[in-house]
Structure formats: structure tokens, C-alpha cells
């Protein structure tokens, strides 16, 4: 399915973004980021009133089952494109990037669904228009499920120009390291079976594949389905490991609960620097998802991250957050990341790397 957007897109959308912001209907507050490193992982924290204003539906909200919500009858002032008969592109009212697009299904579909061929065709139409008309490289994200960081229950992806946090994103590093180790880059001939890699030091499971050659919706769908199979395998293995541990009455090797990022006690006092004084998430604080995930794609690569939990006491992450780019409500949430152990909180929200010592 080949979808073409009007030639005035995306410039017309940028102009509409600026107009809505000037009218006080769209919230965008550019802010400098704070870049820090913890256990070798790069973080960029940005605090913005846009995030403080953003509504997040409860896990059991009726809107997550199709009973209302902002995408059922979208405000025409925010609609900037209709890529095909089944999708709508709106401007995000609570933006962190200019412009920030929300691409949703015209009719309700749950945010727990996989992305299908139509979703990818519409997504790539938006991304290709941004790329081909002289704008910065595009990026898309999909927060699948409440535990994947989805604020709304109506199926939607987000598209924007690729952020620059001031450091190399770990999927890019993972591919570069793997290609250096192999001595060559993936060729077009082998692109369907390109290596799926993980970064050697990132403590939670993730799956990255380079995109090569001509990008088409069918190709993207094939890569997505391949990575999705890895996500499902990882979720299944984690559930099975927990069942074995429960049967054996253990929390992991030598009393360490690798599946939770904590020891076997209900609370674990440890700060982001490894010193006593703060509490990391406790064992089984929240129910775990066995299906939630994050999808991140640029024209160069796709990354998928299996997710167990969306966050703790309002401090969580979606797809961008799991890459280290965190958009926060206030200084209290920033401090909470420290209390939760920074990278330890990532492991608690995602799946641990059992291959790392």
C-alpha cells in the first residue's frame, strides 16, 4: 500500500502548529536538557509544563476500551493529514518537539494491538514526507499497552523529527559495535535476515535491526514482525523463569532477584550511585505485563523493547524514555528517578538481561 500525502505537508502542519501555539491551544515549551550517566547509560532529563498538563488514562479507564477519548472525534484544528481512509494525523496538544504528530486509527482500535500493514503504510507515508521535503530525519514510536507507557487507549503512533540528546542513542551504538565486530555492514542482499543485536552493556532486553535498501511498508512490517517475535519469546522466557523460581522458592541466583533488579527482601535500600539511602522498586509491587512493548524506528534502524511495567508512582517511561530521553513533569519526578535507582528502574520496567553478569 503506497500512500502519498499532499505536497504542502509537512510545512503546512508546522505552520498550523505555530498558529495553535500562538492561540494558546497547543502547549510547547522548549527546554534545555540535563545529561547524566549512570552505570554507563546516558540519560537526558527535560522538565516541561507540556508534560505536566498531559492527561494519562488509568489502566482500567473506559476510554481504553473505546468509550470516548480525544481521537474518536478529533478537533479539526489539530488534524493536519489523513494518510489513507483508516488513519488521521493530528498535532499533539502537549508537545515536546516542534512539530509533534500523533497518527491514530480513524475508528477505535486498542493500543494493545500489534501494528498492522495499514498502520505501517500510514506511518511511513508521514515519515517519508518529513524526510523527503528537507526536514530533519524522522522518528516514530509506539507505546504498546499501558505498561509500555501509553497515555491513551486508542491505537496511535507518534512521529517527529529525531531528537538530539547530545549523545549517541544505544541502538545506534549497538549496531556500530556489532558491525565493527563482524568486519562488515549488512548488505542489501541480506537485509531481510539482517542481524538482530543488543547493546553489550544496556541492562534491559531490547532488539535492534538495521534497515537497509529501499524502505517500503512491506519491508518495515517484515522487520517489525521479526523483532516482535523476539519480544514475545523474551516475555515467555521471563514468565517461565519466574514460575520456576516460585516453584523452587527462590528469587534467583545467590538470593538475588535478577527478574526484579532487587534482592529478595521487600525493600532494597540503594541510591543511584550504589550507596545506601533510597528505595528501589520492591518485588511484585505491581502486576507484570507479558505482552507490552515499545517500538522505535528511524529510516536507519528499528528497536523493540519488551516491557513489564509502565512506571512507579507516576515515574515511568515510554519508548523515548527507555532510550534515555526522559520528559518530566517537575523536579520531584527528576529526584524520584534517583531514588528508584536510574538504570535499576529501567530493569524493573523492562526485562532483565540474563546474559549479563
UniProtKB/TrEMBL annotation:
<feature type="domain" description="Ap4A phosphorylase 1/2 N-terminal">
    <location>
        <begin position="16"/>
        <end position="174"/>
    </location>
</feature>
<dbReference type="GO" id="GO:0009117">
    <property type="term" value="P:nucleotide metabolic process"/>
</dbReference>
<protein>
    <submittedName>
        <fullName>Uncharacterized protein</fullName>
    </submittedName>
</protein>
<dbReference type="Pfam" id="PF19327">
    <property type="entry name" value="Ap4A_phos_N"/>
</dbReference>
<dbReference type="GO" id="GO:0003877">
    <property type="term" value="F:ATP:ADP adenylyltransferase activity"/>
</dbReference>
<feature type="region of interest" description="Disordered">
    <location>
        <begin position="245"/>
        <end position="288"/>
    </location>
</feature>
<dbReference type="Pfam" id="PF09830">
    <property type="entry name" value="ATP_transf"/>
</dbReference>
<dbReference type="InterPro" id="IPR045759">
    <property type="entry name" value="Ap4A_phos1/2_N"/>
</dbReference>
<dbReference type="InterPro" id="IPR009163">
    <property type="entry name" value="Ap4A_phos1/2"/>
</dbReference>
<feature type="domain" description="ATP adenylyltransferase C-terminal">
    <location>
        <begin position="200"/>
        <end position="343"/>
    </location>
</feature>
<dbReference type="InterPro" id="IPR019200">
    <property type="entry name" value="ATP_adenylylTrfase_C"/>
</dbReference>
<dbReference type="InterPro" id="IPR036265">
    <property type="entry name" value="HIT-like_sf"/>
</dbReference>
<dbReference type="InterPro" id="IPR043171">
    <property type="entry name" value="Ap4A_phos1/2-like"/>
</dbReference>
<dbReference type="GO" id="GO:0005524">
    <property type="term" value="F:ATP binding"/>
</dbReference>
<feature type="compositionally biased region" description="Low complexity">
    <location>
        <begin position="246"/>
        <end position="265"/>
    </location>
</feature>
